[in-house]
Fold:
Amino acid sequence: MTLRIGVDVGGTFTDFAVTDTRNARTIFHKRPSTPTEPHRAIVEGLKEVLLENTLSAGMVEALLHGTTVGTNALIQRRVGRVALVTSDGFRDLLEIGRQTRPKVYDIHEDFPAPLVPRDLRFEVPERMRADGRVHVPLDEARLTALAPAILSSGADCIVVCFLNSYAFPHHEERAVEILRAALPPEIFVISSTEIYPEFREYERFTTAVLNGALLTVIDRYLDNLTNEIRDMGVTVEPRISHGSGGLMSVGAARKLPIRASLSGPAAGVSAVLHTAKLMGMGNVITLDVGGTSSDVAMIRDFAASEVAVQDIGGFPVRLPAIDVTAVGAGGGTIAWIDTDELLKVGPFSAGADPGPACYGRGGEDATVTDANVCLGRLNPIALLDGRMPIDASLSREAIGRLADRLGFGIEQTARGILRVVAATVVKALRKVSVERGYDPADFCLFAFGGAGPLMAIDVAREVGIGMVVVPNHPGLMCAEGLQHCALMHDFVRSALWIIDDGSTDRIVGLCADLHADAVRWFGEEDVELARQQVTWRIELRYLGQNFELALPIEEERIDHHLVGELCDRFHALHEQTYGFASRSEPIELVSIKLKAAKRIETVANEPLAPRPAAAPGGTRPVMFGFDDWIDTPIYRRDGLAPRQKLLGPVIIEQQDTTVLVYPGESADVDQWGNLLIELQSENRP
Amino acid sequence: MNLNAIDVEIMRNALSSICDEMYVAIMRSAYSTNIKERRDHSTAIFDTRGRVVVQGESLPLLLASMLGLVEVVLEKYGDTEMRPGDMFISNDPYEGRGSHLPDIALVMPIFADGRLVAFVADIAHHADVGGMSPGSMSGGMTEIYQEGLRIPPIRIMRDHELVADVIDLILLNVRVPRERRGDYMAQVAANLLGARRMADFFRRWSVAAFEEGADAIIESVAKRIRAGISQLPDGVYSFEDVLDDDGMGTSDIPIRVSITVAGDQMHFDFAGCGDQVLGNINVTTSGLQASVLYALKVLVDPAGPTNHGIIDPVSISAPAGSIVDAEFPAATAARAQTCQRIIDAVMGALAQAVPDRVVAASNGANTTLSFSGVGPDGQGYVYMETVGGGAGARAYKDGTDGVQVHVTNTSNLPIEALEKEYPILIERYEFVEGSGGDGMWRGGLGLRRVYRPIDHTCHFGGQGERFVHQPWGLFGGRPGQCGRFRLIDETGNARVLATKPSSLAVPPGSALMVETPGAGGYGDPKDRLSEMREQDRRHGKTSSRIQYQPQAEPPANVRATK
Structure:
């Protein structure tokens, strides 16, 4: 049992990274996805990769994968039928939402209709006050009497959502008990607080409803997957990645399918985290550029930034997740001229079909990829190691149409497209760094995804970043990253009280509750003591504010010194983030969060075997600035030797991406094969 | 310097990134519910001619108020009297060309190469700005002096130091000064942040490039708007709507508009609107401008950016001293009520020009409730909120139920946050069934919300509109239902209140109920698809307890002429 396998199921391709822990060697494999039967690609791909490398299914020690089954089901609304049981007077709350419209000036656009139609929302007399006093007792008789109506509604899941349950869940818990007793066992009954007990009713209710809607979807998927994997001889259960960059067991995913649905971009960030740790880089901004979008995230002090709420299909989901900002800027993103006669790039994309004009599949729009082809930055003959021939003249035609309207040359227009798309990505990058009080110049940029390394230099220059890292397999980062994820779960307790000298006992009490939760979870997941790992965060704000700031705390410091220390740290963080602190103001404790994880041994990557420094395989003319075509040496990535240094201008090609090194810059190959591109300081403001 | 279309787009991105950053900083660090949850704030960058170049995400009314302030600061101080490290503050609709007193605007001149080159500004709706009544929004006041502290354009920062005297004076005059200090600091910090980012900006771009770019960015928006106007059929389009009352004795106030579309230009004439009133629903010049520009943008370029370029192709005239162009010392706190009606009137007029883009009359209001008192814990509090209602039906789908419309798009405060912070319990928050006007497409439903003070007497003040005159339908669509305030006593008896009650006691055991107006339908009800009828029945959204009398179309108070 020595194989750790990461599987990233994407819309087009399913990627595999198989590491044999005996020699730390990683094998990669790629095959088309099977969107209608998502487990099929995993099973088939596994068989292929094991067979090709004469490995056996019995050797699989861990099978770790991220799935988009939940997200796709939500977007297509092919989900379970959910009924809502809520406090009397509030059945429309799910539909009212925040009583806003999505865009101020667009009176024709609406938020998506709630997943639970109005006739499936049932009210029951009950009401908890904010301080825990019972305003209206739970009417158990009425609830019991509702059961037949709920049953005949055809719902396969009942979600119980009561106001103020985040702090006082008794009514919700009792209602769940009553409904479970009154309904057949195959009908799921869940409560809002068991999904995530945080205040703000609309977000909590919606999160619980989405979770309820996905229960049957995930069950079906996991049944198929686990059965077929067992049949092929794999003896371990698969694990599923979730939005905070950790893994969950099959059992946990069946209970919390919504968590398993937010895993997408988080795995890539986990991969960067792993590589950055090996390289000793604590502060990193990640840039993952695919065909249609770019994902940007921030890692500080070896930890990825998190958010409390995310958008999924237009619904807010309140669960902790790695903070990934996505913008519509990828290789297939379309350049166009708006009614104001300015050049715009995105958010529309040519996707995979028809794709960029140069693919020759009938796409007539100029895309970012076409701009790169026009400038010689992308191979003008073929992509994917020659497996995909392209027609550069189609790129020139498409860009020429824009150039004519702008009155520019083709190269100038192509260069303009790349500058505009970089500006879009820069906005996202500033959002994850500058808006949180951090200067991107203090970070290095990890560029991956098929189009990331091409765009990275333009982006880095714009924000003053001095170092760009291109990992060894930029197109397979998610699959690779999954291998380094740990089993992980998040716990929260909302507090909402002012902290003062008397708060220590209450904080210690809350921490004890959370700790008990974690101990229970470690038990359920069979995590032995030596591997148990917990990290704590406490969220604070000035009394009267609405957004909290999170401070990490160490377990051993949860004692009587904590309060004073916390206040000082909070003032400082507030000052750093917002430019002012109010040192005489009372501070409110909003919540305490605990992340429980199973410590795993880091699989150190295999260093690159020593070999002679590679020579360029040829040259081609490339345009870097507005000025001239420069005859530029082309290197093969897989020929590069450890410690080899390349002086720009240079193009480095590999199967899954192309790397660009500007004139005057240099790229170093490190011992694992990562490329470190240092930007000239005069390029930085 | 010669910027091309690519440079301009990149500069616009860089500037809007600065505005967005300022916007988020205020939202996250402010105290007023209006700002932190409801996002009633905005940020912008101006050129030295006082033109807005880029604006952060925001509500239309705030744009006009910031525009006014920069203009006045330029007139009053000129570029000779401004120094690096200055920051100006104002809220006055007359001296500072704002739109009502609770909107506090701060503007900071930006210097480069030793001269004035730009301004950064922010504006936010504070929970209180002093005056006769907590929250500074209640009815019952007849002149601006009663509504709160008037701040003319003055310095709040000089030579990079806050002017403590000014801040002390302001804070002494507002309720809950502890929280308000936080709001002022959040706004000051955001401008300072904007100034730092502009300094970075000017390390990359020369002053000459910025000036040229600003012209081009403004012109690019003007181009979009002109292109949009050109697609409207030329002609003169008129409409008349009516406001319920001002709460101080004037009822049935006409709002009349005549719109001339000629090529790529538009003129909006408000001759025939009622005179300014004693009540606080008067609109000043900046509010009228904001309302017209909002409606225009919705109809011709909803996706484009907002800046001074919108104003270029448009002219507006209104009788001085009318309710849509009020003169000192008219009260203006609830000006949004009238702004909503101006927009409904513009929609009504242009229904014949662009029937597929307009909507029927929406809840036409900014239904406002304010509660104040001393809670059982001995702490005084002021809580104000606005409740959404029906949105007008559209040419191809139903109007949205229970939503903020037109000039306002502020979020509700989560009930769990509200109940934690204030001694009020929300007993119901639901749609008013049957309140949407019938039609081929149904008007949106109003909202019902019930407030119960916990163990104390609270004081209620409210602002309702379309509580008397129903929101009209279009092309045969029926009108939506009116709204109302009701006081429910201990025995459960409900008493209907005035449209704009002020300082009404709600004793323990009783509760205050609001039902906001629905919205008008679109198209003949007999053309409604049977599937939609079936869905209506299943969802119970039309099972009204109140049956409407069939009404002749158009309603008597609404006349559309071409």
